[in-house]
Amino acid sequence: MGRQMFTGTIRQGITMKRILFTTVSLGVLGLVSPALGADLSSYTKAPVVAAPSYDWSGFYVGVFGGGGLGNHNVNNANGPAGFANFTANYESKGGLAGGEAGYNWQSGSIVFGVEGDGFWSSFKGDDAAQVAAGAFAVTAIDATKLRSGATLRARGGFAVDRLLLFFTGGWAYGDFLHTDTDIANGLGIDQFAAHRSGLAAGGGIAYAITDNLIGKVEYRYYDFGRFVRPGLPVLTANGQLPYTVDSTYSVVTVGLDFKWGGPVVAKY
What is the Cα–Cα distance from 226 to 191, expressed in whole angstroms? Predict the structure, then answer.
């Protein structure tokens, strides 16, 4: 019986040692697991690479063309017609085509830059129909043609990858040919050139078709201010009262630019 008690005691001791060893092992494993998990996560988690983002920075040159409407107010000593702000008024229609060059800088989603252009124009119009109808207090027909022009402007916009929404504004130059034809008294034609500085402003949408080729649609408003036909010394060369002409234009164009610089940038 003593031997049986001794054997039971040994078995109980072994069992207690196993329980103790198991408890300690589980405790150590619990302490080590978070650190091991942190190490594993730091080595196995790779950064996610987003789609490349287009960079609008760089020099570009291009061509553009389009058309629109012009508006012309003639004023002389006869004063305005009724409650209008002109003695005579007429529209012009036509198109223009030209070339441009510029540079863009991009910071985040904001793009800003400078652009210059020059163009040839076919815009022309007159008030022959209104004069024939007796609508204005003039007896001569005025006709204005915009022959060419140029601008130098600042640009700013917001880019969403390859899409750019932009606005622009700055200096504008216009080369005009104006013709005044007296039809009531047979005093002939007075034709002269006028060169005007003014303002240009507008905006549009551009899209990078490839990394270098950019297409765009743009609206532009031109205000060339006023040119004056003075008397010589009292009347003009064909016997008219001295007058002024104010000219503005609204034009929509499409363009294609080729850009250098500004590589595609990968974002993480």
Answer: 17
Radius of gyration of the chain (CA): 39
CA 231 centroid distance within chain: 43
Backbone dihedral region for residue 58 (phi beyond 0: left; psi -120 to 50: alpha; all else: beta): left
- Quick check: 146 and 176 in contact, CB under 8 A? yes
Torsions phi, psi of 180, nearest 5? -120, 120
Q: What is the tens place of the pLDDT at every residue in 234-246?
A: 999 999 999 999 9
Q: Does pLDDT of 139 surpass 80?
A: yes
- Residue with token string 């040994």: 10
Count of alpha carbons within 13 Å of 243, Cβ hemisphere only? Answer: 29
> Which residues have CB under 8 Å from 121's CB, separation 6+?
94, 95, 96, 146, 147, 148, 149
**Does the pTM of the predicted model rise above 0.90?**
no
